[in-house]
Amino acid sequence: xxxxxxxxxxxxxxxxxxxxxxxxxxxxxxxxxxxxxxxxxxxxxxxxxxxxxxxxxxxxxxxxxxxxxxxxxxxxxxxxxxxxxxxxxxxxxxxxxxxxxxxxxxxxxxxxxxxxxxxxxxxxxxxxxxxxxxxxxxxxxxxxxxxxxxxxxxxxxxxxxxxxxxxxxxxxxxxxxxxxxxxxxxxxxxxxxxxxxxxxxxxxxxxxxxxxxxxxxxxxxxxxxxxxxxxxxxxxxxxxxxxxxxxxxxxxxxxxxxxxxxxxxxxxxxxxxxxxxxxxxxxxxxxxxxxxxxxxxxxxxxxxxxxxxxxxxxxxxxxxxxxxxxxxxxxxxxxxxxxxxxxxxxxxxxxxxxxxxxxxxxxxxxxxxxxxxxxxxxxxxxxxxxxxxxxxxxxxxxxxxxxxxxxxxxxxxxxxxxxxxxxxxxxxxxxxxxxxxxxxxxxxxxxxxxxxxxxxxxxxxxxxxxxxxxxxxxxxxxxxxxxxxxxxxxxxxxxxxxxxxx
Length: 502
Known about the structure:
Layout: H1 3-28, H2 34-45, H3 48-58, H4 62-84, H5 90-109, H6 119-141, H7 148-176, H8 181-188, E1 239-244, E2 250-253, H9 254-258, E3 263-270, E4 281-290, H10 291-298, E5 306-311, E6 316-320, H11 321-324, E7 332-337, E8 340-341, E9 351-353, E10 367-373, E11 396-401, E12 406-408, E13 412-419, E14 425-432, E15 438-439, E16 441-442, E17 452-458, E18 463-473, E19 495-501
Parallel strand pairs: 1-10, 12-19
Antiparallel strand pairs: 1-2, 3-4, 4-7, 5-6, 5-10, 7-8, 7-9, 11-13, 13-17, 14-15, 14-18, 16-17, 18-19
């Protein structure tokens, strides 16, 4: 058998396997697709340092990079399987079965897939083996008499396989996305709060001089999570279960929450993966139900110190109970964001928002389960991977202008942002070339759970320079100089950038 023919057989066998699995997953649950199930499982088993590298190197494209990497590996395996099977279909069959069993194991491992999910990788396994062996038989049958008719028969079989795989994949994608979540979002309509957040005052940012806008548009709000595919759940199908160490279990539907008195709060969220000077921080007006009210209604029992929240895709987080029950903390079961129902990628129908805690212990998106328990009894997703159980946001500042390694003409205006939720920012200072610290001008103070912009004009001689910043919160704590990586509870250190005055 020619090498090109063998490689093509391997590729078509893998394509048929993936397509069959994707088709069946469209019926039993999109995340049961073996490709996605293996990808999600790979994320779960990836060592934290490698995950941190992926976030730092690729940002919000880390999942796309993973999927592309998996695709390249599959292509290589497919070609290898074909080349190893030039004389006998056994090697390729063994590899096809191994890939199928890997998909089965990944689906069985996923906590968000029901029993029917297993049919997707089984279909993938069967289709891969059958198609591979069928094409191999077609190809070898033409070898004794490699006439035009035999080659045409094989090409027709190959073309039919490719077309069928493509059609099956498209049908699976269509069926898997048949839940019209955007229609559900539109049907929600306005979520008008009974208690609105104070209007953002003029002078809350220095966006004209290079700082971010105070409110981050939804399309620009950072997104860091483990979901390869965004969960799709309609508002009318969503239920939040509150249970565990409570006096009474609650099962709250979407309409149960929206009929309550909704409140609006302006909150800054920040990811624990944010390096010093990093971009993973954003601010929005969230509308929802006070989390404290729901937990008090359930009756939190003595000894419960962890609110263990679970997303519809099985991801978990653990929040300190004493924090979420603080009357002035402002924790929400959020339903809306910046004047519209939560976008899909930010947690529709509902998510948690807890000011002052890093997202991995507080900001569960697509939340469907709240269990009152203890840190001793349950470990959430990131705790199992070596991160801290309690992660209050640390006082931090960032320089946005001048940009690193940029050239500035004339008088230098430096701008940036600082945060210290929920204590609030009292002061930001900068220094140039290790000189004396200079106090910056702060933007209007909105509330202690949001970031605060700063600016300063600097007279600097032409040439290369370095500028550093540090913030002090309202309790008197100053951003420490020592650089510490995000693991296990958030980065610290002074942000510095180098630039040239022309």
